[in-house]
Amino acid sequence: MMDADDVRELNGGYKNSHLNEKKKSIWDKFIEQSTLHGLHYLFEKRPAPQRIIWLILQGLMCALFLWQTLTLALDYLEYNVTSTIEFVTERESNFPAVTLCNFNQYRNSVLSNDYPDFLHVLQQQNPLYEKDKKPINWTKYANTNNLNMKELVRTAAHQMQYDNKTEGGMLYRCTWLGDECKYSDFTTTLTDMGLCYTFNAGM
Predict the structure, then answer these.
(1) Three-class SS state of 41
(2) Looking at residue 156, what is its pLDDT?
(3) Quick one: which H or E segment has residue 196?
(4) Do residues 183 and 161 lie in contact, with contact meaning Cβ atoms separated by under 8 Å?
(5) Which pLDDT tens digit goes with each residue over 49-87?
(6) First to last CA, the chain
(7) What is the value of pTM for the model shown?
(8) N or C: which terminus of the chain carries fewer CB neighbours within 10 A?
(9) Cα 58 vs. chain centroid, distance in angstroms?
């Protein structure tokens, strides 16, 4: 018969044996599934020369990895300058070009007298005016098909020169560095906003 001590010793030996087998199973599984190429060749049952060759290769790869890691770390810790930024503050800056555009692209007085058909079409397209819900009958406005839009915009647009009689014109008064500006100091430019005027256009 076995006494209690023998039973405990037997159980302890069984547990240790089971634990060792479990560890070996985990290690074998790790070797098989490892992404480190060639690692399983070191532990499989292969001829000794093959295992020695793979051991040398693995050692060389590990040494190369450590050397490259150390080289990159030392290079980073040197904090080499790869770019230089220099701020330069100008004491004086050139005055930029300034462009003025009137949101009202056309003068109503000019359109009423010289381009009535075009004015009527604009009024129908503008939601501020009462208009028919029907599409525009372009046959009523034959003259609009032959319009020179560049000439129309230049003629009907608001002019820069101020007229004391009509009190019309965009430039009422202008001074620059103590000198009086004139409408001739502005250059005209056709844009999507209509006819615009640019001061200091040479910039």
Answers:
(1) helix
(2) 82
(3) strand 194-199
(4) yes
(5) 877 887 788 888 889 999 999 999 988 888 777 778 888
(6) 112
(7) 0.44
(8) N
(9) 46
Those residues whose C-beta lies under 8 Å from the C-beta of residue 101, and which sit 6 or more positions away, are 191, 193, 194, 195, 196, 197
Identify the three-state secondary structure at position 103.
coil
Alpha helices in the chain (DSSP H): 4-33, 39-43, 48-77, 108-114, 116-125, 149-156
pLDDT score of 69: 93
**Beta-carbon contacts of residue 157 (< 8 Å; ≥ 6 apart):** 102, 105, 106, 107, 194, 195
Altogether, the residues listed in the chain come to a count of 203
Domain residues of the chain, as ranges?
8-63, 98-199
Buried-exposed string 129-145: b where 16+ CB fall within 10 A, e elsewhere: eeeeeeeeeeeebeeee
**The residue type at 2:** M
AA identity, residue 81? V
Residue with tokens 């150390």: 70
Long-range contacts (CB closer than 8 Å, 24 or more residues apart) made by 142-146:
142/117, 143/117, 143/118, 144/117, 144/118
